[in-house]
Design goal:
By secondary structure, this protein is mainly α. It has one domain (10-208). It is 84% helix and 0% strand. The chain is built from 7 helices and no strands. α2 runs antiparallel to α3 (50-72), α3 (50-72) runs antiparallel to α4 (77-108) and α5 (114-135) runs antiparallel to α6. The N and C termini lie close together (6 Å). It comes from Caldimonas mangrovi. Residues 26-75, 105-204 form the Cation efflux protein transmembrane domain. Its main location: membrane. The chain crosses the membrane at residues 25-43, 63-81, 88-107, 119-136, 156-173, 179-197.
Amino acid sequence: MSAHCHDHGCNADTSQARDPRWRRALWVALVVNAGMFLVEVTGGLSAESAALLADAVDFAADAVNYGLSLAVIGLAAVWGSRVAWLKGWAMALYGLGVLVHAGWLAWQGSSPHAPTMGSIGLLALVANLGVAVMLYRFRKGDANAESVWLCSRNDALANIAIVLAALGVFGTGAAWPDLVVAGIIAALGVSGGLRVLRSARHELRAHAHA
């Protein structure tokens, strides 16, 4: 790398790759997200909840995210930027997919089971808050590290919304709180994906001129 490095800093990726805490944090995050994917798929199908199923797909995507981040540790910095660019697209497309799925459930007219939504939402919130706190110190790294932090942050916000949606479904007996939260999760995915894409593009330009 040369002086063409931008505000994320050239040395952030190199020093972070040597930090065993970063590698351990990614492994823990991967295991947590893979496990919660299985929990939310089962619970989402049982409860007929668009928000839980959307969040389950998000957990799966994040497990892949952490796995890719582990794969590029120690490689040239440009590979981290390339992976971040792919993950940005994945996050944005995931958000659009959630919107389509929520629309399909709305058309079906199904009503989710609020207690299942609430209990699994709380469990997921605890898991994601733990991951977010663990990754907080690494949020100022390169675009790849930023994407990892954004995923964990978005997940925690989404789980808070799911718990509130469960209360809304319980209080109203209607499906619309669940569908609204599914839309919020989708918006977080799209906005986070676009932010990562912008950072990754900036880094890839810097690498090209290095």
